[in-house]
Specification:
With about 625 residues, the protein is mainly α. About 60% of the residues lie in helices and about 5% in strands. A 5-stranded mixed sheet has the order 2-1-3-5-4. The longest helix is centred in the last third of the chain and has 33 residues. It starts with a helix and ends with a helix.
Length: about 625
């Protein structure tokens, strides 16, 4: 009976070469039976059975095959792992050194850090009224990373800690870029070169360090392309690619621009036999993921515009039509042209190499998804409309990969191996050393050693120690979390200066609570962020301008454009009214004077009479009595 239940497992072996056991002749006792009348096996035989099941069972065979596959995979990809790991070490060294000090903090960084802090501290999506300018998934990820790695972050500044966390998506993006390059057929050296171009460009060093939603979305975009280029062409890979891209869009909505390139990658990668299933899985997971955001707005009753609440449709209308255009980058004098010129002044090499390699990417089939994605980004960047500063982050990985892909294609298509290796290697070396290598070395060294945030951090430390925590301050968002943590009241104690822009009225609660505007504040902290915003928006932020005009500096940290000034607002009717009035000390007693001459006695008597009403009335009564007596 026992053999009937466990016999097949006992007779199986991990090796298929072993002969199978022959059936026993009739009348032969069954294994583990001493007599036909015994029903259960003895304990000793049961232990032997368990031992044999552990060593020769099917579970052990599955484990052995899994271990063999893992060992074979590591043996096959050992060289790629070594090259990729070396590239990641270089990227971590360059990006991580001085990540909190350079570049200077921006107001967008403070906003995303403050929103992530609000998620953890108050369970809300924003530190003020949330409106649908960006999907919230980006700072939700930032809040999760801050919660997991909080014990090792001790800089004392919320934005500086956020800068440290940005090293994670940067390294993940670099690793995924190397994997994508290998899956597209690039040789190891060119794949590592794509990683170095992406991460070591001065433009990348300045951008990848900052707490931008684009940096959090980039690894999800690259993960979607990696899954679309999966060599196994399985259904789950394309479904996972749709999920990853949906996460990227819900992190930063501009990720939707590279969707045509991802669709080309999926179309080229699917197997003909399962093409319909794979495309359906990709599209279904992508659409379901994107519908989560409008569903969230529907559940909150904030999909359509209405009185007393924000709405998703209203925010989309503002993003598409209401936001002020920065003009086309092709026209001189526009803000978009100035922004692109700024990018090229920091590093012209990477962007130019990517755009030059764009036709090659569109021509070669395996590089075509990258070419389509980069082409869509370039066209959208050149159109008239609003061009955000972090837009360049999405260009960087595709430019680096296309540049190295074109060089790899030229390497492989040369017929003579000696000419191929010699000529292309010399050209690449000269370009790297004489071209961007020298400028990149100087710019990256400057970024690793410069401290652009010292005045801001000094002001953040000074304010809680020298200003009453009941005061109301007008600050940029890089100060918000640190001031609230130190004891200043949230929302109306430390107020983000953009919320005081009555022309846009993005947050009506601020206007209702502070109708007197700048006069309701005690201090204003003037930083490069506020001064740049005033210069870029001459027709708005009038309340902030008035606060600066009616204030006097209390203390200044640093000098030049990066200085930070703590200024006290003065004037009739100003102040929050929350600070105690300064006590006026009683006047000190005058020193003993020498005896006055006799001529001064009547004057002294008159002053005493004036200050003592009783004596004055007595003197008048005595004078009247004398006149009546006469």
């Amino acid at each position: 009976m026992y053999r009937r239940a466990f016999g097949p497992s006992v007779s199986m072996s991990t090796s298929s070469a072993q002969p199978t056991s022959t059936p026993a002749p009739a009348g032969t006792p069954r294994p583990f039976e001493s007599s036909p009348t015994e029903v259960l096996p003895r304990a000793r035989d049961l232990r032997e059975l368990r031992r044999r099941l552990k060593t020769d069972g099917p579970a052990d065979a599955t484990t052995t095959r899994r271990r063999a596959r893992i060992a074979a995979w590591f043996a096959t990809h050992a060289a790629s792992l070594a090259v990729g790991a070396a590239a990641l070490v270089v990227v971590a060294l360059v990006l991580g050194t001085g990540i909190q000090r350079y570049p200077g903090f921006s107001d967008d960084e403070g906003t995303y850090v403050a929103q992530a802090w609000a998620v953890r501290a108050h369970g809300s999506l924003a530190h003020y009224t949330y409106w649908y300018d960006h999907p919230p998934l980006g700072w939700l990820q930032l809040a999760a990373a801050r919660w997991l790695l909080g014990p090792i972050l001790h800089s004392g500044s919320a934005v500086a800690d956020g800068r440290t966390l940005m090293l994670i998506p940067a390294l993940v993006s670099a690793a995924l870029l190397f994997v994508l390059a290998r899956r597209l057929g690039l040789r190891r050296g060119f794949a590592a070169g794509a990683v170095l171009l992406f991460a070591l460009s001065p433009l990348a060093v300045a951008s990848l360090r900052m707490v931008f939603l684009d940096n959090i979305a980039t690894p999800w975009i690259l993960a979607a392309f990696v899954l679309a280029a999966s060599p196994e062409r399985r259904l789950w890979a394309y479904a996972g690619g749709g999920v990853c891209f949906a996460v990227a869009v819900l992190t930063k909505e501009t990720s939707l621009i590279v969707l045509p390139g991802l669709v080309v990658a999926v179309s080229q990668g699917v197997d003909r036999r399962t093409r319909a299933f794979c495309l359906t899985a990709f599209a279904t997971m992508l659409v379901l993921g994107l519908l989560a955001y409008p569903l969230f707005a529907v559940l909150k009753g904030e999909l359509l515009p209405g009185p007393g609440h924000v709405s998703l449709v209203e925010a989309l209308r503002f993003q598409v039509y209401g936001r002020a255009s920065t003009g086309s980058a092709l026209l001189p004098g526009t803000l978009s042209r100035q922004l692109v010129a700024n990018w090229l002044s920091v590093d012209p090499w990477l962007l130019v190499l990517g755009i030059v390699a764009l036709p090659v990417g569109l021509w070669i089939r395996r590089l075509r998804p990258l070419g389509v994605a980069l082409g869509c980004l370039v066209v959208m960047g050149l159109r008239p409309g609003y061009l955000p500063q972090p837009y360049v982050i999405a260009l960087l990985p595709f430019c680096g990969l296309l540049a190295m892909g074109a060089l790899d294609a030229a390497w492989g298509r040369t017929r003579r191996p000696a000419l191929r290796r010699g000529g292309i290697a010399v050209v690449a070396l000269l370009l790297a050393v004489l071209g961007f290598g020298r400028s990149w070395y100087a710019a990256d060294g400057y970024a690793m050693s410069q401290d652009a945030n010292r005045p801001l951090l000094a002001a953040q430390r000074w304010i809680p120690q020298h200003i009453d925590h009941r005061a109301r301050l007008l600050v940029d968002d890089t100060f918000y979390v640190d001031l609230v943590r130190s004891g200043f009241a949230p929302r109306f104690g430390a107020v983000w200066f953009y919320k005081l822009d009555f022309t846009t009225n993005l947050d009506p609660s601020i206007v209702r609570h502070l109708p007197q505007g700048w006069r309701a504040f005690d201090y204003v902290v003037s930083t490069d962020v506020i001064r740049s915003a005033l210069a870029e928006n001459p027709a708005s932020l009038s309340q902030v301008r008035l606060a600066l005009q009616h204030s006097t500096p209390v203390v200044t940290f640093g000098s030049g454009p990066g200085r930070a000034e703590v200024r006290r607002i003065t004037g009739i009717g100003t102040g929050s009214g929350l600070l105690p009035r300064p006590r006026v000390a009683p006047p000190a007693a005058p020193a003993a004077a020498p005896p006055a001459p006799v001529a001064a006695a009547p004057h002294r008597t008159a002053r005493r009479a004036h200050h003592h009403p009783r004596r004055h009335r007595h003197a008048r009564r005595h004078h009247h009595h004398r006149r009546k007596h006469r």
